[in-house]
Amino acid sequence: MNNEQAAQWMRQTAEKLVEHKDELSKLDQFVGDGDHGVNMERGFRAVVENLDDWKDLSLSQLMQKIGSALVSNVGGAAGPLYGTAFMRLGTAWTDVDQVDGPAWMSGMAKAVEGIAQRGKAQAGDGTLLDVWSPVAAILDENEPDWKKIEDAAQTGMEETESMVVKKGRGALLGEKSVGHLDPGAVSSFYLFQALAKTMDE
Ligand code: ADP
Ligand code: MG
Ligand code: MG
């Protein structure tokens, strides 16, 4: 992935989030406060608006910029979590021009670690980490298999439906949170679906 592809990834993600904004907010009405679609759309819109200004940045710098734009513009619980994930990609990719298999593997491992620390969460807690974590887990030294990544993200998202949510607003519902997809897991699926689409083109 180069800077231009990363920018395309952000555009594709923003497009998906706009398309699925109501669906994401609706899911968040079951397990939260109903704003996840609005939050994500606002955040990725802000990222896309800045992409032209960021086109000469290194990938590391670009990921840092995306991360801080997400922290400031997504807001809520998801902003700092998504923001941390991208900022960790940024730190992992210092001195990297072209993100290849090993860079994806180390970057995603750091991103998952960052989300887990920030959210005091682990896989199985019924959050966006249940998408990020299996995606990171299937990466190895080889160039990523984008179809497999999309599939892993989808399976991770689907599995949140049967989980008792242990972190974030959904945790207040206890057992009643079972039977609903986690909104953050669904938005993360769209993010990785957009990545797969961008990289396969
Ligand atoms: P808020 O809950 O502040 O309204 P959002 O609705 O934008 O924020 O985001 C909610 C999503 O954030 C959840 O669906 C979940 O995936 C994620 N989330 C919330 N808290 C945590 C946490 N402590 N650890 C990991 N993920 C979390
Ligand atoms: Mg919410
Ligand atoms: Mg909120």
UniProtKB/TrEMBL annotation:
<dbReference type="InterPro" id="IPR050861">
    <property type="entry name" value="Dihydroxyacetone_Kinase"/>
</dbReference>
<dbReference type="Pfam" id="PF02734">
    <property type="entry name" value="Dak2"/>
</dbReference>
<dbReference type="InterPro" id="IPR004007">
    <property type="entry name" value="DhaL_dom"/>
</dbReference>
<dbReference type="GO" id="GO:0047324">
    <property type="term" value="F:phosphoenolpyruvate-glycerone phosphotransferase activity"/>
</dbReference>
<keyword id="KW-0418">Kinase</keyword>
<comment type="subunit">
    <text>Homodimer. The dihydroxyacetone kinase complex is composed of a homodimer of DhaM, a homodimer of DhaK and the subunit DhaL.</text>
</comment>
<dbReference type="GO" id="GO:0019563">
    <property type="term" value="P:glycerol catabolic process"/>
</dbReference>
<dbReference type="GO" id="GO:0004371">
    <property type="term" value="F:glycerone kinase activity"/>
</dbReference>
<keyword id="KW-0808">Transferase</keyword>
<dbReference type="InterPro" id="IPR036117">
    <property type="entry name" value="DhaL_dom_sf"/>
</dbReference>
<protein>
    <recommendedName>
        <fullName>phosphoenolpyruvate--glycerone phosphotransferase</fullName>
        <ecNumber>2.7.1.121</ecNumber>
    </recommendedName>
</protein>
<dbReference type="GO" id="GO:0005829">
    <property type="term" value="C:cytosol"/>
</dbReference>
<comment type="function">
    <text>ADP-binding subunit of the dihydroxyacetone kinase, which is responsible for the phosphoenolpyruvate (PEP)-dependent phosphorylation of dihydroxyacetone. DhaL-ADP is converted to DhaL-ATP via a phosphoryl group transfer from DhaM and transmits it to dihydroxyacetone binds to DhaK.</text>
</comment>
<dbReference type="InterPro" id="IPR012737">
    <property type="entry name" value="DhaK_L_YcgS"/>
</dbReference>
<comment type="pathway">
    <text>Polyol metabolism; glycerol degradation.</text>
</comment>
<feature type="domain" description="DhaL">
    <location>
        <begin position="4"/>
        <end position="197"/>
    </location>
</feature>
<keyword id="KW-0319">Glycerol metabolism</keyword>
